[in-house]
Amino acid sequence: MTQDNLWQLDAHDIARQTTSGDLRAQDSVGAAIDRMNAVNPDLNAVVVDLSDEAMARAQALDASRDAGTPCGPLHGVPVTIKINVDQKGQATSNGVVALKELIAPDDAPIVRNLQNAGAVVIGRTNTPEFSFRADTDNPLFGRTHNPWGRHISPGGSSGGAGSAVMAGIGALAHGNDIGGSLRFPAAANGAVTVKPGLGRVPAWNPSQSAERGLLAQSMSVQGLITRSARDLHHAMPTMIAPDPRDPFHVPMPWQGRALDGPIKVAFTKNTFGYDLHPEVEAALDTARDALVDAGYKVEDIEPPNVFDCGRDGYRALMGEVYSLMKTDVDAHGSQAIQDIFAVYFQEFPPFLETDLLQIMAKRSHYARQWSLFLEDYPLILTPFLPRPFFKPDRDTEGGEGVHEVLGCAVYSYAMNFLGLPAASVPSRLAHLPQGIQPINIQVVARRWREDMAVDACIAIEDRVGRMCRPLWEHMASS
């Protein structure tokens, strides 16, 4: 690895070399910043450049190591933070012009945990207005582009994070997920992520003036988008460090006990009437074969009804959004986001009043069904989307556009409603008329067993390879 290519190193490689002294934090961070300066002007993934602060911190980390201070597990690893999470002294704008001066008084738990582990924040990444689209564009910072090309949306709402990490801007990218906002960008860019289960990663924004709605609290989680599945095993244990500001965080170890015998995996291609694209089916078959080769016992069997669970869950979330957020969206959102929300409310008619309370109660019914099923099948291999990832601004094209973007994504938001871990990993590179693009599948795991989902992603990645390599070749030749 030459000095010019240090930006290609994974997080676990950087940490190993900076800890041993084979690499200086200033070198790893400087390489990521150089890469950011080279590719970000075209991508607009990082919208707040923190290069100066990052180099000063890297210098301090090097001095600390030289003085004999033990290194953290992410010593000198360059990372990005999404602009909807508090970082002390920075604006938590959430892509909204009216919030561009909302300066965070302190770090959110996720930022504190990353920095306590030795990570270095090099920039803050873009999100759509109110972080409520599966695409990334806003009037404050503009559109983020996918490094594979302008024919694919970068996903959302952590679209800046997914675009940045796959393009080589930092080894880890922070994101969050209330209905798919880690997994949509992972699928769009060919990255890897695991949406943690409810209570796994502490969360809170010190800048917030009121508590979030109950469904937002129970469906939204913080996580990481990476280029390598193994980086999730390396970095996620730092993310789950306790923080008393989140009273519902559950301080469990990252690694669970090994299960006896071959791990059973339920496998489904059911897309509930939506046409399953041949490239998605091929990606699912490849993932299944990879797991079989790795010693998993994969069986064709349907999990509990994900369609009703997902639709009920998102309609419940829309009910909460309608009651608690609509006023702010109408007052401070662009016309584009107001129009999108109007279609959301058509696609997912909000549960309100007594109906909302009843469906929130029914959440336990759905979760119990899935918990019982996962007793027999600790992992479930599913589609993420029934079709290859959509084009930019597809969700601005009325009901048909929102239906393609979100209406068919029941495997995504059902997992938020259930509070279950769900990983996304690429298993195919599709050559389509509009251009090449990755295809990701989803791996759902038992509650508290994110580690098992990541293990499955590693097995798939070992067979397929990481998508960053063909992407970097594609970027170099474009």
Automatic annotation (TrEMBL):
This is Amidase family protein. PANTHER family: AMIDASE-RELATED, AMIDASE-RELATED-RELATED. Residues 28-452 form the Amidase domain. Keywords: Hydrolase. InterPro entries: Amidase_dom, AS_sf.
